[in-house]
Design brief:
Blueprint: H1 2-12, H2 16-33, H3 36-52, H4 56-72
Length: 82
C-alpha cells in the first residue's frame, strides 16, 4: 500500500514518471496478494497519470480496467451532478 500512496503523492506533485515507477511496482504485488480493490486503485491512479501525460488511449484502458474490478466488488461509482 505504501507504493500506491507514493505513486499517488508523486502524481499530485507533478512527478509523473516517479508515480508510474511506484505504481508499476505496486500492481504485481497487489495482483499476487489477490487484493482486487488495491489493483483497481493502482489502475485508477495510473489512468489519471496517463491522462495528465496526454495518452488518452492508455488512460481509458486503465480506467476501464479499474471500473471493471470495482464493479465486480459491488462498487457503483456516483453519478456526476449537473
Amino acid at each position: 500500500m505504501q507504493l500506491i500512496t507514493l505513486g499517488y503523492l508523486y502524481r499530485q506533485a507533478g512527478k509523473m514518471q516517479k508515480s508510474l515507477d511506484c505504481l508499476n511496482q505496486a500492481l504485481p504485488i497487489e495482483q499476487k496478494a489477490g487484493n482486487q480493490g488495491a489493483q483497481g486503485m493502482v489502475q485508477n491512479i495510473m489512468g489519471r497519470v496517463y491522462t495528465d501525460l496526454g495518452d488518452e488511449n492508455k488512460a481509458l484502458e486503465l480506467l476501464d480496467q479499474a471500473l471493471l474490478i470495482w464493479r465486480s466488488l459491488g462498487f457503483t461509482p456516483p453519478k456526476p451532478t449537473p
